[in-house]
Amino acid sequence: MNTAALDLFQQLLRRALATPPAETRRLLHGRGRCWPGLEHLAVDWLEGVLQVQVFRPPADLQALCDRCRALATEQPAVKAVWLQQRYLPGSPGLWLLGEPRTQWQASENGLRYHLLLGHAQNNGLFLDMRTGRQWVREHVHGKRVLNLFAYTCAFSVCAIAGGAAQVVNLDMSRAALARGRDNHRLNGHALDRVRFLGHELFKSWGKVARGGPYDLVIIDPPTFQKGSFVLTQDYRKVLRKLPTLLAPGGDVLACVNDPALGAGFIIGCMAAEAPALQFVERLENPPEFPDCEPDGGLKVLRFHWGNTAVGPCIAAAQP
After folding, report:
1. 94 is in which domain, residue-wise?
2. What GO terms in the biological process aspect are recorded for it (predicted)?
3. What is the rounded CA–CA span in Å between residue 93 and residue 287?
4. In what order do the strands lie in the sheet with 246-256?
5. Are residues 70 and 169 part of one domain?
6. Are residues 302 and 190 part of one domain?
7. Is residue 49 part of a domain?
8. I need a labelling partner for 47 at 20 to 30 A (CA). Which of 39, 128, 273, 314 fits?
9. Mean pLDDT within 244-268
Protein backbone atom coordinates (compact mmCIF):
# COMPACT_ATOMS: atom_id res chain seq x y z
CA MET A 1 0.00 0.00 0.00
CA ASN A 2 1.41 3.36 -1.00
CA THR A 3 0.59 6.72 0.58
CA ALA A 4 -2.33 7.32 -1.80
CA ALA A 5 -3.93 3.98 -0.87
CA LEU A 6 -3.45 4.68 2.84
CA ASP A 7 -5.05 8.11 2.39
CA LEU A 8 -8.02 6.47 0.63
CA PHE A 9 -8.24 3.83 3.38
CA GLN A 10 -8.37 6.52 6.04
CA GLN A 11 -10.88 8.62 4.09
CA LEU A 12 -13.32 5.74 3.53
CA LEU A 13 -13.20 4.57 7.13
CA ARG A 14 -13.50 8.08 8.52
CA ARG A 15 -16.69 8.45 6.49
CA ALA A 16 -18.02 5.06 7.62
CA LEU A 17 -17.30 5.75 11.27
CA ALA A 18 -18.82 9.24 11.29
CA THR A 19 -22.05 7.48 12.25
CA PRO A 20 -21.09 3.96 13.38
CA PRO A 21 -23.59 1.21 12.54
CA ALA A 22 -25.90 0.18 15.35
CA GLU A 23 -25.07 -3.48 14.67
CA THR A 24 -22.13 -5.48 13.37
CA ARG A 25 -21.38 -4.61 9.74
CA ARG A 26 -18.54 -4.56 7.24
CA LEU A 27 -17.19 -1.04 6.82
CA LEU A 28 -14.69 -1.59 4.01
CA HIS A 29 -14.70 -4.47 1.54
CA GLY A 30 -11.47 -3.95 -0.33
CA ARG A 31 -11.54 -7.52 -1.61
CA GLY A 32 -14.32 -6.53 -4.00
CA ARG A 33 -11.62 -4.65 -5.94
CA CYS A 34 -13.56 -1.43 -6.13
CA TRP A 35 -10.79 0.71 -4.59
CA PRO A 36 -7.29 0.48 -6.13
CA GLY A 37 -4.63 -0.36 -3.59
CA LEU A 38 -7.08 -1.74 -1.01
CA GLU A 39 -7.74 -5.13 -2.63
CA HIS A 40 -6.25 -7.07 0.26
CA LEU A 41 -8.03 -5.32 3.12
CA ALA A 42 -11.35 -5.77 4.90
CA VAL A 43 -12.57 -3.82 7.92
CA ASP A 44 -15.47 -4.88 10.13
CA TRP A 45 -17.34 -2.98 12.81
CA LEU A 46 -17.89 -5.28 15.78
CA GLU A 47 -19.82 -2.79 17.88
CA GLY A 48 -16.90 -1.10 19.57
CA VAL A 49 -14.11 -3.24 18.16
CA LEU A 50 -12.64 -2.36 14.77
CA GLN A 51 -11.38 -5.54 13.09
CA VAL A 52 -8.91 -4.91 10.27
CA GLN A 53 -8.11 -7.99 8.17
CA VAL A 54 -5.01 -7.94 5.97
CA PHE A 55 -4.85 -10.71 3.36
CA ARG A 56 -1.40 -10.00 1.88
CA PRO A 57 1.75 -8.57 3.47
CA PRO A 58 1.52 -4.77 3.21
CA ALA A 59 4.53 -2.85 1.98
CA ASP A 60 4.58 -0.91 5.25
CA LEU A 61 2.73 -2.63 8.10
CA GLN A 62 3.75 0.06 10.57
CA ALA A 63 2.22 2.79 8.40
CA LEU A 64 -1.05 0.87 8.20
CA CYS A 65 -1.07 0.37 11.98
CA ASP A 66 -0.44 4.07 12.50
CA ARG A 67 -3.38 5.01 10.27
CA CYS A 68 -5.65 2.59 12.15
CA ARG A 69 -4.67 4.08 15.50
CA ALA A 70 -5.20 7.61 14.19
CA LEU A 71 -8.69 6.70 12.95
CA ALA A 72 -9.61 5.09 16.25
CA THR A 73 -8.52 8.04 18.36
CA GLU A 74 -10.79 10.30 16.28
CA GLN A 75 -13.86 8.15 16.98
CA PRO A 76 -15.10 7.82 20.60
CA ALA A 77 -17.20 4.80 19.64
CA VAL A 78 -14.05 2.77 18.84
CA LYS A 79 -12.91 1.04 22.03
CA ALA A 80 -10.37 -1.37 20.51
CA VAL A 81 -8.62 -2.11 17.21
CA TRP A 82 -7.66 -5.65 16.21
CA LEU A 83 -5.47 -6.07 13.11
CA GLN A 84 -5.49 -9.64 11.86
CA GLN A 85 -2.69 -10.86 9.60
CA ARG A 86 -4.60 -13.34 7.46
CA TYR A 87 -1.55 -13.96 5.29
CA LEU A 88 0.34 -15.68 8.14
CA PRO A 89 -0.21 -19.26 9.37
CA GLY A 90 -2.85 -19.26 12.07
CA SER A 91 -3.90 -15.69 11.15
CA PRO A 92 -2.33 -14.01 14.20
CA GLY A 93 -2.99 -10.40 14.97
CA LEU A 94 -2.07 -7.26 16.84
CA TRP A 95 -4.16 -5.29 19.30
CA LEU A 96 -3.43 -1.73 18.22
CA LEU A 97 -5.71 -0.06 20.73
CA GLY A 98 -7.65 -1.08 23.82
CA GLU A 99 -7.54 -4.18 25.97
CA PRO A 100 -7.16 -7.50 24.13
CA ARG A 101 -10.48 -9.30 23.91
CA THR A 102 -10.70 -12.99 23.11
CA GLN A 103 -14.50 -13.13 23.35
CA TRP A 104 -17.00 -10.62 22.04
CA GLN A 105 -20.59 -10.46 20.88
CA ALA A 106 -22.13 -9.29 17.64
CA SER A 107 -25.71 -8.36 16.87
CA GLU A 108 -27.45 -8.67 13.50
CA ASN A 109 -31.12 -7.98 12.85
CA GLY A 110 -31.82 -8.21 16.58
CA LEU A 111 -30.09 -11.57 17.10
CA ARG A 112 -26.85 -12.07 19.03
CA TYR A 113 -23.79 -14.18 18.23
CA HIS A 114 -20.63 -15.09 20.12
CA LEU A 115 -17.36 -14.11 18.45
CA LEU A 116 -13.86 -15.37 19.18
CA LEU A 117 -11.04 -12.96 18.42
CA GLY A 118 -7.46 -14.10 18.05
CA HIS A 119 -8.17 -17.84 18.18
CA ALA A 120 -8.59 -18.75 14.53
CA GLN A 121 -8.88 -17.40 11.02
CA ASN A 122 -12.64 -16.68 11.31
CA ASN A 123 -14.38 -15.10 14.27
CA GLY A 124 -17.60 -17.13 13.98
CA LEU A 125 -19.92 -14.99 11.84
CA PHE A 126 -19.62 -14.42 8.08
CA LEU A 127 -21.01 -10.93 7.54
CA ASP A 128 -21.57 -11.30 3.79
CA MET A 129 -24.26 -13.93 4.49
CA ARG A 130 -26.53 -11.44 6.26
CA THR A 131 -29.25 -11.39 3.60
CA GLY A 132 -29.15 -15.19 3.39
CA ARG A 133 -29.72 -15.49 7.12
CA GLN A 134 -32.57 -12.99 6.94
CA TRP A 135 -34.19 -14.91 4.07
CA VAL A 136 -34.11 -18.07 6.17
CA ARG A 137 -35.65 -16.30 9.13
CA GLU A 138 -38.51 -15.02 6.96
CA HIS A 139 -39.33 -18.31 5.17
CA VAL A 140 -39.08 -21.21 7.62
CA HIS A 141 -42.08 -20.93 9.91
CA GLY A 142 -43.27 -24.44 10.73
CA LYS A 143 -40.64 -26.06 8.49
CA ARG A 144 -37.91 -28.65 8.99
CA VAL A 145 -34.45 -27.35 8.14
CA LEU A 146 -31.16 -29.13 7.41
CA ASN A 147 -28.10 -26.92 7.87
CA LEU A 148 -25.06 -28.56 6.26
CA PHE A 149 -21.56 -27.28 7.09
CA ALA A 150 -23.26 -25.51 9.96
CA TYR A 151 -20.10 -24.03 11.58
CA THR A 152 -21.38 -21.93 14.53
CA CYS A 153 -25.04 -22.40 13.51
CA ALA A 154 -25.94 -18.83 12.59
CA PHE A 155 -28.47 -20.13 10.04
CA SER A 156 -29.96 -22.30 12.78
CA VAL A 157 -30.32 -19.32 15.12
CA CYS A 158 -32.21 -17.44 12.40
CA ALA A 159 -34.37 -20.46 11.60
CA ILE A 160 -35.49 -20.94 15.21
CA ALA A 161 -36.09 -17.19 15.50
CA GLY A 162 -38.30 -17.52 12.42
CA GLY A 163 -40.40 -20.32 13.90
CA ALA A 164 -38.84 -23.40 12.29
CA ALA A 165 -40.29 -26.69 13.52
CA GLN A 166 -36.86 -28.31 13.73
CA VAL A 167 -33.29 -27.64 12.64
CA VAL A 168 -30.59 -30.26 12.15
CA ASN A 169 -27.05 -28.85 12.12
CA LEU A 170 -24.19 -30.92 10.75
CA ASP A 171 -20.52 -30.01 10.96
CA MET A 172 -17.40 -32.10 11.52
CA SER A 173 -16.16 -29.58 14.11
CA ARG A 174 -17.73 -30.35 17.47
CA ALA A 175 -16.16 -27.19 18.88
CA ALA A 176 -17.97 -25.07 16.28
CA LEU A 177 -21.26 -26.83 17.08
CA ALA A 178 -20.71 -26.16 20.79
CA ARG A 179 -20.46 -22.48 19.94
CA GLY A 180 -23.66 -22.93 17.95
CA ARG A 181 -25.41 -24.18 21.09
CA ASP A 182 -24.12 -21.13 22.91
CA ASN A 183 -25.46 -18.88 20.16
CA HIS A 184 -28.92 -20.38 20.61
CA ARG A 185 -28.72 -19.95 24.37
CA LEU A 186 -27.55 -16.37 23.94
CA ASN A 187 -30.83 -15.68 22.12
CA GLY A 188 -32.96 -17.46 24.70
CA HIS A 189 -33.78 -20.41 22.45
CA ALA A 190 -34.83 -23.73 23.90
CA LEU A 191 -32.87 -26.52 22.25
CA ASP A 192 -35.65 -29.09 21.97
CA ARG A 193 -36.12 -28.16 18.29
CA VAL A 194 -32.40 -28.17 17.45
CA ARG A 195 -30.07 -31.11 16.76
CA PHE A 196 -26.29 -30.99 16.44
CA LEU A 197 -24.48 -33.72 14.50
CA GLY A 198 -20.70 -33.59 14.85
CA HIS A 199 -19.88 -35.86 11.92
CA GLU A 200 -18.09 -35.89 8.59
CA LEU A 201 -20.86 -35.47 6.04
CA PHE A 202 -19.94 -38.15 3.53
CA LYS A 203 -19.88 -40.81 6.26
CA SER A 204 -23.18 -39.72 7.80
CA TRP A 205 -25.87 -39.69 5.12
CA GLY A 206 -27.97 -42.23 7.02
CA LYS A 207 -28.07 -40.14 10.19
CA VAL A 208 -28.83 -37.02 8.21
CA ALA A 209 -31.63 -38.66 6.22
CA ARG A 210 -33.33 -40.01 9.36
CA GLY A 211 -34.05 -36.45 10.45
CA GLY A 212 -35.89 -35.68 7.21
CA PRO A 213 -37.45 -35.15 4.87
CA TYR A 214 -36.58 -31.47 5.08
CA ASP A 215 -38.45 -28.47 3.76
CA LEU A 216 -35.23 -26.46 3.43
CA VAL A 217 -31.66 -27.64 2.93
CA ILE A 218 -28.86 -25.10 3.34
CA ILE A 219 -25.52 -25.93 1.70
CA ASP A 220 -22.79 -23.45 2.64
CA PRO A 221 -19.49 -25.36 2.39
CA PRO A 222 -15.91 -24.17 2.70
CA THR A 223 -13.97 -23.92 -0.52
CA PHE A 224 -11.40 -26.31 0.90
CA GLN A 225 -11.23 -28.31 4.11
CA LYS A 226 -8.18 -30.53 4.30
CA GLY A 227 -9.03 -34.21 4.26
CA SER A 228 -12.80 -33.75 4.07
CA PHE A 229 -14.06 -31.35 1.39
CA VAL A 230 -12.82 -29.88 -1.89
CA LEU A 231 -15.54 -27.74 -3.41
CA THR A 232 -14.84 -28.46 -7.07
CA GLN A 233 -14.75 -32.20 -6.41
CA ASP A 234 -17.31 -32.73 -3.66
CA TYR A 235 -20.12 -30.21 -4.22
CA ARG A 236 -21.74 -32.52 -6.76
CA LYS A 237 -21.77 -35.37 -4.22
CA VAL A 238 -23.88 -33.26 -1.88
CA LEU A 239 -26.33 -32.18 -4.59
CA ARG A 240 -26.72 -35.80 -5.70
CA LYS A 241 -28.23 -36.65 -2.30
CA LEU A 242 -30.85 -33.89 -2.31
CA PRO A 243 -33.73 -36.01 -3.70
CA THR A 244 -33.36 -38.32 -0.69
CA LEU A 245 -33.24 -35.44 1.80
CA LEU A 246 -35.71 -32.86 0.50
CA ALA A 247 -39.47 -33.00 0.73
CA PRO A 248 -41.37 -32.34 -2.53
CA GLY A 249 -42.11 -28.63 -2.67
CA GLY A 250 -39.00 -27.91 -0.60
CA ASP A 251 -36.24 -25.37 -1.17
CA VAL A 252 -32.46 -25.46 -1.27
CA LEU A 253 -30.10 -22.57 -0.56
CA ALA A 254 -26.89 -23.49 -2.37
CA CYS A 255 -23.93 -21.24 -1.61
CA VAL A 256 -20.41 -20.74 -2.96
CA ASN A 257 -17.90 -18.11 -1.90
CA ASP A 258 -15.04 -18.78 -4.28
CA PRO A 259 -14.24 -15.85 -6.61
CA ALA A 260 -13.07 -18.35 -9.25
CA LEU A 261 -16.49 -20.05 -9.43
CA GLY A 262 -19.56 -18.19 -10.62
CA ALA A 263 -23.23 -18.89 -10.07
CA GLY A 264 -23.20 -20.94 -13.25
CA PHE A 265 -21.11 -23.55 -11.45
CA ILE A 266 -23.93 -24.24 -8.97
CA ILE A 267 -26.65 -24.11 -11.62
CA GLY A 268 -24.79 -26.55 -13.85
CA CYS A 269 -24.04 -28.95 -11.01
CA MET A 270 -27.64 -28.88 -9.83
CA ALA A 271 -28.97 -29.53 -13.36
CA ALA A 272 -26.69 -32.55 -13.65
CA GLU A 273 -27.14 -34.05 -10.18
CA ALA A 274 -30.66 -33.04 -9.06
CA PRO A 275 -32.60 -31.95 -12.16
CA ALA A 276 -35.94 -31.94 -10.30
CA LEU A 277 -34.75 -28.80 -8.53
CA GLN A 278 -35.36 -25.62 -10.47
CA PHE A 279 -33.41 -22.40 -10.10
CA VAL A 280 -35.57 -19.58 -8.71
CA GLU A 281 -33.37 -16.66 -7.72
CA ARG A 282 -30.01 -15.45 -6.56
CA LEU A 283 -30.16 -13.56 -3.27
CA GLU A 284 -28.50 -10.17 -3.30
CA ASN A 285 -25.41 -9.69 -1.20
CA PRO A 286 -25.46 -6.92 1.41
CA PRO A 287 -24.72 -3.51 -0.15
CA GLU A 288 -21.58 -3.11 1.97
CA PHE A 289 -20.00 -5.94 -0.06
CA PRO A 290 -19.59 -4.32 -3.50
CA ASP A 291 -17.65 -6.29 -6.10
CA CYS A 292 -16.28 -5.16 -9.45
CA GLU A 293 -17.43 -8.50 -10.90
CA PRO A 294 -20.97 -9.74 -10.14
CA ASP A 295 -19.76 -13.32 -9.80
CA GLY A 296 -16.72 -12.44 -7.72
CA GLY A 297 -18.36 -12.41 -4.31
CA LEU A 298 -20.68 -14.70 -2.39
CA LYS A 299 -23.25 -16.64 -4.43
CA VAL A 300 -26.46 -17.69 -2.64
CA LEU A 301 -28.88 -19.40 -5.01
CA ARG A 302 -32.37 -20.68 -4.23
CA PHE A 303 -33.72 -23.80 -5.92
CA HIS A 304 -37.22 -25.24 -5.57
CA TRP A 305 -38.55 -28.76 -6.00
CA GLY A 306 -41.90 -28.25 -7.67
CA ASN A 307 -43.52 -26.49 -10.58
CA THR A 308 -41.98 -23.09 -9.99
CA ALA A 309 -40.88 -21.58 -13.28
CA VAL A 310 -37.24 -20.73 -13.73
CA GLY A 311 -36.74 -17.26 -12.33
CA PRO A 312 -35.92 -14.19 -14.43
CA CYS A 313 -32.55 -13.90 -12.67
CA ILE A 314 -31.10 -16.99 -14.31
CA ALA A 315 -29.42 -15.07 -17.12
CA ALA A 316 -27.76 -12.73 -14.64
CA ALA A 317 -26.69 -15.64 -12.47
CA GLN A 318 -24.85 -17.40 -15.26
CA PRO A 319 -21.27 -16.34 -16.04
Report:
1. 3-101
2. methylation
3. 27
4. 194-197, 166-170, 144-148, 214-219, 246-256, 299-305, 277-282
5. no
6. yes
7. yes
8. 39
9. 95
DSSP run (H or E) holding 240? helix 231-240
Whether residues 219 and 289 share a domain: the answer is yes
SS3 86: coil
What sign has the CA pseudo-torsion 243, 208, 138, 125? negative
- Shared domain for 71 and 18, answered yes or no, is yes
**Is a pLDDT exceeding 70 seen at residue 307?**
no
Counted domains in the chain: 2
**What secondary structure does DSSP assign to 147-160, as a single string?**
EET-TT-HHHHHHH
Asked whether residue 131 falls in the same domain as residue 271, the answer is: yes
Q: What is d(CA 72, CA 136) in angstroms, rounded to the nearest whole number?
A: 35
Contact call for residues 36 and 292 (beta carbons, < 8 A): no
Tens of pLDDT, residues 19-37: 999 999 999 999 999 999 9
pLDDT, residue 229, reads 83
Judging by DSSP bridges, how do beta strands 93-97 and 80-85 pair with one another?
A: antiparallel
User: How many Å apart are CA 176 and CA 174, to the nearest integer?
Assistant: 5
Residue 230 has pLDDT above 90, yes or no: no
Are residues 160 and 272 part of one domain? yes
Mean pLDDT of the chain: 92
Which amino acid makes up residue 214?
Y
Please name which of 197, 196, 207, 219 lies closest in space to residue 274, comparing C-alpha atoms: 219
Look up residue 97 and give its amino acid: L
Tell me the pTM: 0.93
Q: How far apart are CA 235 and CA 220, in angstroms?
A: 10
Task: Examine the domain organization and report whether 195 and 94 are in the same domain.
Answer: no
CB proximity list for 16: less than 8 A, separation 6 or greater: 27, 28, 43, 45
How many CB atoms are closer than 10 A to CB 46? Answer: 23
User: Alpha helix (H) ranges present in 18-92?
Assistant: 61-74
Query: What would the pLDDT profile of 126-163 be if each residue is shown by its tens digit?
Result: 999 999 999 999 999 999 999 999 999 999 999 999 99
